Amino acid sequence: MRSGVQGQVPVLNVGDADAAGRFYALFGYTGQPGEDGRSRLRCGDLTLLIVEGAAAPATLYLHVDDVAATTERLVAAGHRVENAPGGECRTADPDGNTILFAHPPGVPAPQVEPDGRPAPVRRAAQVAARRDGAPGHCGIGGPRGEPCTEPAEVKLADSWGDTVWGCLTHADEALVNARGAFLATEDSTGIAAYLAARQARPETAAVPG
Length: 209
Hints:
By secondary structure, the chain is of the alpha+beta class. It contains five helices and ten strands, in the order βαβββαβββαββαβα. The strands form three sheets. Strands 4-7-6-5 form a four-stranded mixed β-sheet, with no helix packed on it. It is elongated.
């Protein structure tokens, strides 16, 4: 018979079990409060025990199958998500418990630069730095409308055609919180150039019969 720990069940003390249940449902946990005042939430073979009472600070580290999708669900539900080095993300539950989540060990995570930013964002900033036309300062600004004096390093766009230049910090925030926002480039290989290249040249155009 194997000795040692046979399993483990994290226990969280929360102020509102219903609010906690809704939060952890965003990660895939389901369950109902038991007769003993405890909520045993299940996600596959995993159990998370929620105890309503005086909240005590705790940290929970979760392995999720899709970090991007989990982040989208959290942000859409009004929860702030921060990027951490190594592909981890950090958020907090309604009681202030720190929740870290990342891909399981052995599952490749999106490439991240040493400063914690995804490599595509950093590469976009490097490309923009080599081109003219960027404004002097970030046009996104702070969450309360305060201006940002940091240099504009990344251009963002959406499917409506709106664009904005921002510093890396506020561009990161916009990419997470603005659904449909994406990195825009200043390359000459955009839609207009692509369509122009497809236009038939006079010498090759079909002649009506």
